[in-house]
Design brief:
The protein is of the alpha+beta class. It has one domain: Ribosomal Protein S8, Chain: A, domain 1. The protein is built from two helices and four strands; from the N terminus they run βαβαββ. The chain has a four-stranded mixed sheet. The longest helix is centred in the N-terminal third of the chain and has 14 residues, at 23-36.
């Protein structure tokens, strides 16, 4: 049974609880909600693993018009296991 996972809109999106096929639609929904709340910088936690999920996230962020820029997080915020995205106003 698929239960909806409640995701707080707080600027931190942890993808560990989601299947890879859900990531694109999740980003499409979550980022605009953050912008509506005035959260223009957010952290997307994709984990380190093989890097496939990170590449998927980065590929999709590049296509999103509301994304101004993104980069891997610094060591204190997850390093290469997380991405920091900045949204356009």
């Amino acid at each position: 049974m698929n239960e909806a996972i409640e995701q707080p809109i707080d600027g931190v999106l942890d993808l560990h609880n989601f299947r890879p096929k859900e990531v694109r639609s999740l980003l499409d929904e979550y980022l605009p909600l953050c912008r509506e709340k005035g959260i223009l910088e957010l952290r997307i936690i994709h984990g380190k693993g093989t890097g496939a999920l990170r590449e998927m996230v980065h590929s999709h962020l590049k296509k999103m018009p509301i994304v101004d820029s993104f980069h891997l997080a610094d060591a204190s915020s997850g390093g290469w296991g997380a991405t920091v995205a900045r949204l356009r106003r």
